[in-house]
Specification:
alpha+beta
Length: about 120
Amino acid sequence: MAEFTTILDGLEVMMQLGIHPHEVAPQRVVVSVEMTVVYPGPLGEDAIGEVLDYDFVRAGILAMVAERPFALQETLCEAIAALCLADERVRRVEIETMKTDVYPDAAIGCRIVRERRIDREQ
């Protein structure tokens, strides 16, 4: 078994995220994703078909934030985690979102970690 960490860091999106009236307009949100990905063994080839293609995560996040507004960063993080865990090779995912323009002196964010349950009899 081979384990890798795949990282998508600092993806900036413009989206509706928040509960306050001034958050109805799209705002800048920075998304970072760290996935623990497990493969059956060491990589045999230097080919994208051998590994998780992180393009699906980026494209999925972009589509998700374009399709609907989110009230809570926690809900956004859960949706991104579900997207990542849809690939069965992903065993653990850490998601962080940061609303960077809410306050003039600080960013505000959320971080979650989700893990796939592993059947101990395998």
